[in-house]
Amino acid sequence: MWYYEFNDQQIGPVPESELQARIAEGVIGKATLIWNETMLDWKPAGSTMPAAFTGVTAASPTASPVGYTDRSTRGPGSTGAKFAFALGVISIVVGILVGAIGLFLGAGAIFLGALMRNKGRRAGVPDHRHAKLGMITGALGVAISIMNIIGGYMWAKSQGLI
């Protein structure tokens, strides 16, 4: 089964025959990123399946391909992944303002992002952007919180409060 990119969205899984049909229709061009379970990364269709493009002229599709699924809004774990991203952003803000609370929020964002990423992968979604963003922003929130806590401690010590 194959996945391909269309309008910055992931489409699939689709059988190879459907992928070939999309190439013939011009929906998938040589630069369109494609992926299947045997590949480590997304690669351009032209370098992955060069024989499929012999005799194909470039076309600009006007309609969405059959089987189009907006994975960013309806994919497996998408609600949880978006929540992880929001929690990560909140952990950054709270980490800057308060410090310690941002540690817990950031850790929650990392955990939830990883959980949703794994849920998406088990469902056949190779990449879930919001889950990754949740983990990254959560890690930033934790780092900012730790720096804020250390800075507050050093300031309090320099003022003779500790």
Q: In words, what does this structure look like?
A:
By secondary structure, this protein is of the alpha+beta class. The chain has two domains: 2-69, no CATH class; 72-158. The protein has helices spanning 16-25, 45-48, 71-74, 78-97, 100-122, 129-158, and strands at residues 2-6, 9-14, 33-36, 43-44. A four-stranded antiparallel beta sheet has the order 2-1-3-4. Helix 4 packs antiparallel against helix 5, helix 4 packs parallel to helix 6 (129-158) and helix 5 (100-122) runs antiparallel to helix 6 (129-158). The longest helix is centred in the C-terminal third of the chain and has 30 residues, at 129-158. It is elongated.
**Helix content class:** 55-70%
Number of helices: 6
Per the principal axes of the C-alpha atoms, what is the gross shape?
elongated
**Intertermini distance:** 62 Å
Strand tally, please?
4
Secondary-structure blueprint of this entry?
Blueprint: E1 2-6, E2 9-14, H1 16-25, E3 33-36, E4 43-44, H2 45-48, H3 71-74, H4 78-97, H5 100-122, H6 129-158
Antiparallel strand pairs: 1-2, 1-3, 3-4
Helix pairs in contact: 4-5, 4-6, 5-6
